[in-house]
Fold this protein.
Amino acid sequence: MTSISPLIPRQPVPDLVVTTTSGDTWRLLENKPENFTLIVVYRGLHCPICRRYLADLQRHIGELGEQGVEVIVISTDTAERTRKAKEDWKLDKLTLASGFSLDDARAWGLYISSGLGVNSTGLEEPEMFGEPGLFLVRPDGTLYFGTVQTMPFARPHFSDITGSIKYVISKEYPARGEIVDHKSGA
């Protein structure tokens, strides 16, 4: 059985190299936002909850930009399905990218699910796909905040995320959850 290893706050995250829907290569370690990179992992084109979630993200993209946060939205979907999601879901303000493999998803501590065929929206689920995750990464490539889920629902609200980022920046609040061995304090 393969176990999932969580990413540790204040530690480097795996590099992330993906291809945006415009055909550009996007690389996390070359990305130097003022404060953070927000990586939003969605389940894929087949997920109606993801559609609503990303629509909410699009409503907050201006505020995130004002806070010095750059946003990339990824899934384990193919490039074709990623372009279709961007177009069909009218996500013109978001940068969506493909090229995030199941191995990448595991490296980021995400859960993997098996597809169940055609879903309630009439779309075929991929054979396997990554479940949702949200990561806030500092410009130096270390994790500030992360959350992963086994299901598509009950994700953090972007109004909470933007409010938290405002607080974090104004108070210089440190990343928490950095202790790996609670017996030694390291």
Observations:
- The longest strand covers residues 36-41.
- Residues 19-171 form a domain with the Glutaredoxin fold (CATH 3.40.30.10).
- The beta strands are 17-20, 25-27, 36-41, 69-74, 96-98, 112-114, 128-130, 133-137, 143-148.
